[in-house]
Predict the structure of Propionate CoA-transferase.
Amino acid sequence: MKAQFMKAEEAAGLIKDGETVTTVGMTLVGAAEAVLKAIETRYLETGHPKDITLVHSAGQSDRKDGIQHFAHEGLVKRIIGSHWGLQPRWMDMIANNKVEAYCLPQGQMAQLYRSMACGLPGKMSKVGLGTFIDPRVEGGKMNNRTEPLEDLSEIIEYDNEEYMFYKKIPLDVCIIRGTTADEMGNITMEEEAMKLEVLPAVLATKRFGGKVIAQVKRVAQTGTLNPKDVVVPGVFVDVVVECENPFEDHRQTSSWYFDPSYSGSLRVPQTSIKPLELNIRKFIGRRAMYEIKKGDIINLGTGIPNDVIGNIANEEGISDEMMITVESGIYGGVQAGGIDFGIGQNVYAMISHDQQMDYYNGTGVDVTFMGAGELDREGNVNATKMGPLCTGSGGFIDITQNAKKVVFCATFSTRGAKINFENNQINIEQEGSIKKMVSKVSQISFNGKLAREKGQQVIFVTERAVFKLVKEGVMLIEIAPGVDLQKDVLDMMDFEPIVSRDLKVMDVELFKDGPFGLRDFMTKE
């Protein structure tokens, strides 16, 4: 039994007009760049394949590559995904009604592959209820073109409780990436920085009689791979593409070609991980970390949380007092940020994407730190659509709906705000032109009413004010030193919060250069 080896251009020719194609990756990690480029080139030169449906669980781009290669009107008729924050061309196409666009929660999509793989008609879950994913709200439809089309989910009742039911999506082609393939087509991932949901996506495609295309960095003799390292058995792989230019088209992540400390084969000295300079994002992260306690398992979302909190934990020497996790499946370590979201140095464990979501959807993480765009008087949060920019939900809904405590991290205003730190206080030089505290969010990514009904702990941390979700609504519980309560906080809100009778001033230690004593704070009895 030997695998069929092809060049990327030949593999691109296997995709037919109108087929449903799924790709597996997160940011640019796992993106089969050579194959994706070849599909784009073929379309631009021949007009084929056309009118395909593109299915992807996580966002897969670095603002330039990944599934951005598919962002051409005519190539894709419908996109079903979770996140486009690093995909400006896709956000533009969605906003301008150039494609049918559905957003589904990232974890539900990763797990839907698994449900489809074992022959089920779809996936049942509480995740999505009461948010814009709910078919009674928006049904995850991201533009006017999609509004009149069929729903991809429905509400069902089981044992007197409501659930979302995400319907199966028959797949024709699955495009994956591994590190090594042997001559039989067995695929390993030893140099990849995430495990992702590769096997469930492959098996879901096989369930519908589809084709699997795997891009690899190199080819080994059959029988030389450790069977425990094989992620996809060769019997499920139709075509193997050995990347001809791995430095460009098979990078471990966008910012570098390969670093063994991100794939778990090397640990770097902790002292080599440099602390961040104190700025507004680090300040918000520091205050947010007051919400954890010793022994907590925490999650980091994109934006401020992933970019600063792991680094702060390393600087404060508290990495042994709690466990950081990220939706990609990593445990511990210091996370890369920005366009390299989802990976980390010196991690302790790495599980698959769909398995990680089992934990977030079931047990629920102790504390999740998430970015946010808008907060309203009901405690609803919008983190998925800002004006014409439809970033999508990613893992936001999966994680926040089931976390025991949710800590939103955001600047108080945006676009043009200038803030500095002097004399242990906040100094607002220029106010942002866009308010984040609004009377009604433009899209419900997190349902404050449902959170209040179930007694979920919710904190909203900004550089100048901290809010807490209480039974009666949104309560202001802290302000930063140097901030005028009326002018800098209340006048900048479109709704009137409940002001705590015990309104506190933030700890001045937050302004300190170097470690600010978080370890001592966490370990207090």
Summary: The CA atoms of residues 262 and 345 lie 5 Å apart. The chain is about 20% helix and 25% strand. The two ends are 63 Å apart (CA to CA). The longest strand covers residues 498-505.
